[in-house]
Automatic annotation (TrEMBL):
<dbReference type="InterPro" id="IPR009926">
    <property type="entry name" value="T3SS_YcgR_PilZN"/>
</dbReference>
<keyword id="KW-0966">Cell projection</keyword>
<feature type="domain" description="PilZ">
    <location>
        <begin position="127"/>
        <end position="238"/>
    </location>
</feature>
<keyword id="KW-0969">Cilium</keyword>
<keyword id="KW-0282">Flagellum</keyword>
<dbReference type="InterPro" id="IPR012349">
    <property type="entry name" value="Split_barrel_FMN-bd"/>
</dbReference>
<dbReference type="Pfam" id="PF07238">
    <property type="entry name" value="PilZ"/>
</dbReference>
<keyword id="KW-0547">Nucleotide-binding</keyword>
<feature type="domain" description="Type III secretion system flagellar brake protein YcgR PilZN">
    <location>
        <begin position="18"/>
        <end position="124"/>
    </location>
</feature>
<dbReference type="Pfam" id="PF07317">
    <property type="entry name" value="PilZN"/>
</dbReference>
<keyword id="KW-0975">Bacterial flagellum</keyword>
<dbReference type="InterPro" id="IPR009875">
    <property type="entry name" value="PilZ_domain"/>
</dbReference>
<protein>
    <submittedName>
        <fullName>Flagellar regulator YcgR PilZN domain-containing protein</fullName>
    </submittedName>
</protein>
<keyword id="KW-0973">c-di-GMP</keyword>
Length: 250
């Protein structure tokens, strides 16, 4: 996705609904990007096709600027110094986040080449879905255990997860035990070791054919999620989102 696809600069008045112009909120968003080491997609000059990756190193509210580390691929560094303007696109807590920033100066320090850009006067944020979902890493798959009211244990592989619910794959023989609207005890452990226990309401049941055979895809919604568990899932979703964005730029 680029800025043209978002329609940020075509004069579309409905974009005003997604513009943040409050200075304190803008600084908070930039600081969150810095704290979370969010991978940014950076566009320079008038070229909206070439995407460079970077991250915000620090935010300096007193001097009304923020530091951006060097761009990758490195060819973008010279282009940014010539154009003096960057368009930046990222995802923050599941929201598409975009803004323009003007380059004040480029400098070298112990961290290497970095760019000092003026804090923008506006930031555009668009929530793409109520609960942003990510898929588990293939290197760290997540197994989910469901239990019916009769005590039957069902084990499935997690397909995606958000703070609102999750998707699961089961072998095709499972199906009669499940129905839309059914509530099940749900349990799984996040990679860092946090045990999640909650109730899951079955929302969708879809039979699929894969290379490994026939499977049942189950989409569920968490009925009640304790605050500590909600926070743990949100941290996992944020971390996986960064990993996915980073790998897509490699």
């Amino acid at each position: 996705m680029n800025f043209d696809q978002l329609g940020l600069f075509n004069g579309d008045s409905q974009n005003e609904d997604f513009l943040i112009k409050d200075g304190a909120k803008i600084r908070a968003i930039l600081q969150e990007m810095s704290d979370e080491k969010t991978i940014l997609s950076v566009f320079v000059a008038e070229d909206e096709q070439t995407v460079y990756s970077a991250a915000i190193l620090e935010v300096d509210p007193g001097r009304k600027r923020f530091a951006l580390d060097e761009l990758l691929p490195a060819t973008g560094n010279a282009r940014l110094q010539v154009s003096r303007r960057a368009r930046i696109l990222a995802r923050v807590r599941g929201m598409v986040t975009a803004f323009e920033a003007v380059l004040q100066e480029a400098e070298q320090d112990a961290r290497g080449l970095l760019f000092q850009l003026a804090i923008p006067q506006w930031i555009y944020q668009l929530q793409r879905r109520e609960h942003f979902r990510v898929s588990p890493s293939q290197d760290a798959p997540l197994r989910v255990v469901l239990q019916t009211n009769s005590g039957q244990i069902l084990k499935g592989d997690m397909v995606d997860i958000s703070t609102g619910g999750l998707g699961l794959n089961f072998v095709f023989t499972i199906g009669d035990e499940l129905a839309r609207g059914q509530r099940l005890a749900c349990e799984f452990t996040l990679p860092e070791g946090t045990l999640i226990r909650t109730d899951l309401e079955v929302c969708t049941l879809t039979r699929l054919q894969s290379q490994s055979g026939r499977i049942l895809r189950v989409g569920g919604r968490f009925s009640v999620l304790a605050p500590a568990m909600n926070a743990a899932i949100q941290r996992y979703v944020t971390r996986r989102d960064r990993e996915i964005l980073r790998s897509s730029r490699l």
